[in-house]
Please model this.
Amino acid sequence: MDPQKYQICIATANLADTGFSYTLSLIQGKYKMTILYTLMTFGVVRFNEMKKYIGAISYKTLSATLKELETDQLVHREEYPQIPPKVEYSLTLRGQSLIPILDQMCEWGEKNRL
Model:
């Protein structure tokens, strides 16, 4: 990495135009990464299972965050027409493409845990 290259370009650069910024816009939020990690680890997960696993998240926040991830095509929601209602969540192919990044974050955390 050449630091001068970045110093020369920064005057005309715009962070909002970068892939980093776009990726961050999809995964930023208090629980988005946790939900993605949960789905990466367990595959198909029901709403109440996810709520129990995450713990501190409210039902309202979990629901809203899942809707955002679904809108961004990272999470798939499957609703079954039965009583009581059954809803399952899983990663889409687009969401699965984040798995290498999540894996690297896990590895980094394990190596650098204090």
